[in-house]
Design brief:
The protein is flat, with a radius of gyration of 44 Å. The chain has a three-stranded antiparallel β-sheet. The chain is 57% helix and 8% strand. It is mostly helical. Among the domains are: 86 residues, no CATH class; 39 residues, no CATH class.
Protein backbone atom coordinates (compact mmCIF):
# COMPACT_ATOMS: atom_id res chain seq x y z
CA UNK A 1 0.00 0.00 0.00
CA UNK A 2 1.21 3.46 -0.82
CA UNK A 3 2.25 6.00 1.75
CA UNK A 4 -0.67 8.21 0.72
CA UNK A 5 -3.13 5.35 1.28
CA UNK A 6 -1.76 4.67 4.72
CA UNK A 7 -1.92 8.32 5.49
CA UNK A 8 -5.55 8.44 4.36
CA UNK A 9 -6.50 5.45 6.53
CA UNK A 10 -4.72 6.88 9.52
CA UNK A 11 -6.60 10.12 9.09
CA UNK A 12 -9.89 8.21 8.96
CA UNK A 13 -9.02 6.16 12.04
CA UNK A 14 -8.03 9.27 13.99
CA UNK A 15 -11.31 10.99 13.09
CA UNK A 16 -13.23 7.88 14.14
CA UNK A 17 -11.31 7.63 17.38
CA UNK A 18 -12.06 11.30 18.17
CA UNK A 19 -15.79 10.79 17.51
CA UNK A 20 -16.04 7.86 19.97
CA UNK A 21 -15.12 9.83 23.14
CA UNK A 22 -17.75 12.48 22.29
CA UNK A 23 -20.39 9.78 21.93
CA UNK A 24 -19.26 8.13 25.17
CA UNK A 25 -19.49 11.47 27.01
CA UNK A 26 -23.00 12.05 25.70
CA UNK A 27 -24.02 8.55 26.72
CA UNK A 28 -22.51 9.01 30.21
CA UNK A 29 -24.33 12.34 30.67
CA UNK A 30 -27.63 10.75 29.65
CA UNK A 31 -27.05 7.87 32.05
CA UNK A 32 -26.38 10.26 34.96
CA UNK A 33 -29.50 12.26 34.12
CA UNK A 34 -31.57 9.07 34.20
CA UNK A 35 -30.11 8.12 37.60
CA UNK A 36 -31.02 11.54 39.04
CA UNK A 37 -34.52 11.30 37.61
CA UNK A 38 -35.19 7.89 39.12
CA UNK A 39 -33.86 8.68 42.61
CA UNK A 40 -36.50 7.17 44.92
CA UNK A 41 -38.37 9.48 47.29
CA UNK A 42 -39.23 8.50 50.85
CA UNK A 43 -43.01 8.28 51.17
CA UNK A 44 -44.65 10.45 53.88
CA UNK A 45 -46.44 8.43 56.50
CA UNK A 46 -49.73 10.28 56.91
CA UNK A 47 -51.65 7.55 58.71
CA UNK A 48 -49.20 7.02 61.58
CA UNK A 49 -51.21 7.96 64.74
CA UNK A 50 -48.17 9.29 66.60
CA UNK A 51 -47.17 11.50 63.65
CA UNK A 52 -50.72 12.76 63.26
CA UNK A 53 -50.95 13.60 66.98
CA UNK A 54 -47.63 15.47 66.89
CA UNK A 55 -48.79 17.37 63.81
CA UNK A 56 -52.08 18.27 65.53
CA UNK A 57 -50.23 19.56 68.62
CA UNK A 58 -47.86 21.57 66.43
CA UNK A 59 -50.77 23.20 64.61
CA UNK A 60 -52.42 24.13 67.94
CA UNK A 61 -49.14 25.58 69.27
CA UNK A 62 -48.54 27.55 66.07
CA UNK A 63 -52.08 28.99 66.18
CA UNK A 64 -51.67 29.96 69.86
CA UNK A 65 -48.35 31.63 69.06
CA UNK A 66 -49.89 33.60 66.18
CA UNK A 67 -52.79 34.70 68.41
CA UNK A 68 -50.38 35.80 71.15
CA UNK A 69 -48.22 37.71 68.69
CA UNK A 70 -51.31 39.47 67.32
CA UNK A 71 -52.44 40.41 70.83
CA UNK A 72 -48.99 41.70 71.76
CA UNK A 73 -48.76 43.74 68.56
CA UNK A 74 -52.18 45.25 69.26
CA UNK A 75 -51.25 46.11 72.86
CA UNK A 76 -47.96 47.66 71.80
CA UNK A 77 -49.79 49.70 69.19
CA UNK A 78 -52.31 50.90 71.77
CA UNK A 79 -49.63 51.71 74.34
CA UNK A 80 -47.47 53.49 71.78
CA UNK A 81 -50.25 55.77 70.61
CA UNK A 82 -52.94 55.89 73.31
CA UNK A 83 -54.73 59.18 73.01
CA UNK A 84 -56.52 61.11 75.73
CA UNK A 85 -60.28 60.83 75.69
CA UNK A 86 -62.06 64.17 75.98
CA UNK A 87 -65.45 62.43 76.30
CA UNK A 88 -64.41 60.12 79.15
CA UNK A 89 -65.95 60.93 82.53
CA UNK A 90 -65.09 59.41 85.91
CA UNK A 91 -67.54 56.76 87.09
CA UNK A 92 -69.31 58.13 90.17
CA UNK A 93 -71.66 55.29 91.10
CA UNK A 94 -74.51 56.07 93.51
CA UNK A 95 -72.98 59.24 94.92
CA UNK A 96 -69.21 59.05 94.64
CA UNK A 97 -66.57 60.77 96.74
CA UNK A 98 -64.45 63.82 96.11
CA UNK A 99 -60.81 63.10 95.28
CA UNK A 100 -57.75 65.25 94.76
CA UNK A 101 -55.46 63.82 92.09
CA UNK A 102 -52.20 65.05 90.64
CA UNK A 103 -48.49 64.29 90.15
CA UNK A 104 -46.54 63.46 93.29
CA UNK A 105 -43.59 65.58 92.16
CA UNK A 106 -45.44 68.80 91.40
CA UNK A 107 -42.25 70.81 90.94
CA UNK A 108 -41.04 68.44 88.21
CA UNK A 109 -44.38 68.37 86.36
CA UNK A 110 -45.89 71.84 86.85
CA UNK A 111 -47.88 71.57 83.60
CA UNK A 112 -49.99 68.72 85.05
CA UNK A 113 -52.87 70.19 87.06
CA UNK A 114 -54.18 69.11 90.45
CA UNK A 115 -57.75 68.01 89.83
CA UNK A 116 -60.64 67.75 92.31
CA UNK A 117 -63.55 65.62 91.14
CA UNK A 118 -66.00 62.91 92.21
CA UNK A 119 -65.40 59.21 91.52
CA UNK A 120 -66.56 55.94 92.95
CA UNK A 121 -63.14 55.05 94.45
CA UNK A 122 -59.37 55.69 94.28
CA UNK A 123 -58.78 53.32 91.36
CA UNK A 124 -61.41 55.04 89.21
CA UNK A 125 -60.09 58.49 90.17
CA UNK A 126 -56.57 57.51 89.11
CA UNK A 127 -57.77 55.84 85.88
CA UNK A 128 -59.69 58.93 84.81
CA UNK A 129 -56.85 61.34 85.61
CA UNK A 130 -54.30 59.29 83.65
CA UNK A 131 -56.61 58.87 80.64
CA UNK A 132 -57.85 62.45 80.48
CA UNK A 133 -54.52 64.32 80.70
CA UNK A 134 -51.69 64.23 78.21
CA UNK A 135 -47.94 64.35 78.72
CA UNK A 136 -45.93 65.93 77.21
CA UNK A 137 -48.48 68.73 77.12
CA UNK A 138 -50.13 69.00 73.73
CA UNK A 139 -49.02 65.53 72.58
CA UNK A 140 -52.46 64.00 73.08
CA UNK A 141 -50.82 60.89 74.58
CA UNK A 142 -52.07 59.75 77.99
CA UNK A 143 -49.86 59.97 81.09
CA UNK A 144 -47.51 57.03 81.59
CA UNK A 145 -48.05 55.95 85.25
CA UNK A 146 -44.57 54.38 85.34
CA UNK A 147 -42.82 57.61 84.34
CA UNK A 148 -45.07 59.90 86.41
CA UNK A 149 -46.30 58.82 89.84
CA UNK A 150 -49.81 60.12 90.48
CA UNK A 151 -51.16 60.58 94.02
CA UNK A 152 -54.84 60.07 94.78
CA UNK A 153 -56.27 61.52 97.98
CA UNK A 154 -59.88 61.30 99.13
CA UNK A 155 -60.87 64.67 100.62
CA UNK A 156 -64.51 63.74 101.20
CA UNK A 157 -65.29 63.32 104.94
CA UNK A 158 -68.13 60.94 104.04
CA UNK A 159 -65.56 58.41 102.84
CA UNK A 160 -63.94 58.24 106.28
CA UNK A 161 -67.37 57.74 107.83
CA UNK A 162 -68.10 54.87 105.45
CA UNK A 163 -64.73 53.23 106.19
CA UNK A 164 -65.26 53.63 109.95
CA UNK A 165 -68.77 52.17 109.69
CA UNK A 166 -67.48 49.19 107.68
CA UNK A 167 -64.89 48.50 110.40
CA UNK A 168 -67.50 48.70 113.18
CA UNK A 169 -69.86 46.38 111.32
CA UNK A 170 -66.96 43.96 110.87
CA UNK A 171 -66.40 43.94 114.65
CA UNK A 172 -70.12 43.28 115.24
CA UNK A 173 -70.08 40.41 112.72
CA UNK A 174 -67.03 38.92 114.41
CA UNK A 175 -68.67 39.12 117.86
CA UNK A 176 -71.83 37.45 116.58
CA UNK A 177 -69.77 34.63 115.04
CA UNK A 178 -68.05 34.01 118.38
CA UNK A 179 -71.30 34.31 120.38
CA UNK A 180 -70.16 37.39 122.30
CA UNK A 181 -72.57 39.95 123.72
CA UNK A 182 -72.97 43.28 121.88
CA UNK A 183 -73.03 46.72 123.50
CA UNK A 184 -76.19 48.82 123.20
CA UNK A 185 -74.55 50.95 120.52
CA UNK A 186 -73.47 47.86 118.56
CA UNK A 187 -76.98 46.41 118.87
CA UNK A 188 -78.42 49.63 117.44
CA UNK A 189 -75.97 49.52 114.53
CA UNK A 190 -76.75 45.85 113.90
CA UNK A 191 -80.49 46.59 113.73
CA UNK A 192 -79.92 49.59 111.42
CA UNK A 193 -77.48 47.78 109.11
CA UNK A 194 -78.68 44.19 109.55
CA UNK A 195 -78.40 43.36 105.85
CA UNK A 196 -74.77 44.52 105.69
CA UNK A 197 -73.87 42.74 108.94
CA UNK A 198 -75.22 39.44 107.61
CA UNK A 199 -74.10 40.10 103.99
CA UNK A 200 -77.52 39.88 102.35
Amino acid sequence: MSQAGKSGNNGGNQAGNQAKPVEQQASLAESLANQVAITPTVPRVESDPETMELRRRLEIAEKALKDEQARNAELMELEAGRKISINDKPYVGDAGYTFEVGPRDRAKFPELPIEKFKATDEAEAKRWYLNSHDYPKGSGIVIDPIAIVVDVKCIDPRRNEVILLAKRLGVIRSKLDRGQQLTDEETGLMIKYEARVHNY
